[in-house]
């Protein structure tokens, strides 16, 4: 029973004071001057004041509240990938929870953290964020303390841990004699020019007194290039050539040593986006025609292309007696372009070009050799390709995917995609191709060919080939069998997607990775791994995935459009995933690059020690003995000892019921009041 006295006056306190204070002053004055009956008058006044103040006795029924204990269990990857830590953590958490259940003074809240779906949360061990979430609805007076079961690698230790108002105890998994080596990038640019040197720096770190030189394997896009050497603890420079446009994964790896804690941090990763230096394109137009500037305008509008364009305006047979010094035409530098600098070009385009002795016959052989060695050639054919001066009648024949049959079809037709073209990255998804007839204008000329070699991705009148793409040696060749593309560019009958088509053709010839027919790509989006397979086949086999910790997964690739298959799956690990599909392999990094979670994985109590000291808690290793005992302590008492940890108890309670007992009411109060006033009247009457 909790008794207390309360007042519930019939008037407000100011009114009550205005009524009683003057009378009280008169009574006190009479008492001071020694008047007879002054004590009785004062007693009557006190009885009247008590009646008006209405005192009440309150009997409160209260239920004591429990103190709240937060048990934060670290399940981050630095804990789970080292088997003994995960087992120790699980056993300690279960035992702590069981011991707390024996006390009626404590309410236990267990929070497991480290297995979040967010990449940012998985990148660091944030135990104090989890602790704050567990105690957010608990007033400070009811917080008993916190028990953190972790390896000590905590990345969000606050500077004001004492604000919790309760002890923080750290139970550290792992051994005190752990040793580990790790590698990290110190400086890694995000972008680099394809084929140009890129300068990076890295550092190899080790615990204890390890020193000396370490072999570092340099791996780019899964292929080991060379072995570098680094001195432990010293920043080491590294220079590599950026191999590909788009995303490149640069790995540095060191071999594990005996009894090393883990080799998960023996790799460092840098993601470098390769940017192509301006592509050099040589465009040779055989003669002026209606669509001559279509290719030129397109290539000039691309900031990534350096264009060299020549038009043969004056063939050798044109002799009109004009003196050479009066001609304003630029001589065609054939030897410089096709002998000395031919390998500097990424693409050569012959636009309605015919052999008229402008190029020596031997130079066509140089062009064919250029293609064989990795160059790119595009033939935009017109009627001259079917004539006697066709370049198909030169040594360039070795590089051509088809030979003319002498036929030139002069009739209207809609360019259409073939079944192959519907899946090929160059023509797949062209705007307007989904309907029949296609939603673009007609063309009116087609050059006939026999026995095309390569992939026919577009067809014209009579289902004859219109666009052929072919690989020749290490290079590529494209053949456009019409000179009517300019009708799309001029908007004839609504025009057509000439920009997309011409640009894709040019970039496929120059080996743009995104336009490869057979391509496997993967990327991390947060903690999801997204896999895409481009193929000319009608289906794709399942993708085999190797996780950063060495585990294996399988993902079924579902249709994502013609020639495309994809899969997406949630992951629980940060790091590099290796994906294989058929003969293709690729790499993808999921989560933040070089996450702090894998930086230093040696267990330690040093990071938690300041927070424990500030709150009166403790930090101790679980491997050094049994779990400490749990002792309830008062607010002002010590909260730790050699073999025990203390948790605060609270005096807070919940009011369940209140019983009111009025003191100055009823017949007794009335009798006392009448007696006091009657005695005063009697004394005054004497």
Tell me about this structure:
The chain is of the alpha/beta class and 686 residues long. The chain has 5 domains: 2-63 and 655-685, no CATH class; 66-175 and 603-651, von Willebrand factor, type A domain (Rossmann fold, 3-Layer(aba) Sandwich); 181-270, Immunoglobulin-like, CATH 2.60.40.10; 279-514, Class I glutamine amidotransferase (GATase) domain (Rossmann fold, 3-Layer(aba) Sandwich), CATH 3.40.50.880; 519-590, Macroglobulin (MG2) domain (Immunoglobulin-like, Sandwich), CATH 2.60.40.1930. It contains 14 helices and 36 strands. The strands form 9 sheets. Strands 16-15-17-18-24-23-22-20 form an 8-stranded mixed sheet. A 5-stranded parallel sheet has the order 4-3-5-6-33, sandwiched between helices. Strand 29 and strand 30 (564-570) form a beta hairpin. Helix 1 (13-33) packs antiparallel against helix 2 (38-53). It is elongated, with a radius of gyration of 44 Å. The protein starts with a strand and ends with a helix. The model has no long low-confidence stretch (mean pLDDT 83). Keywords: Membrane, Transmembrane, Transmembrane helix. This is Glutamine amidotransferase domain-containing protein.
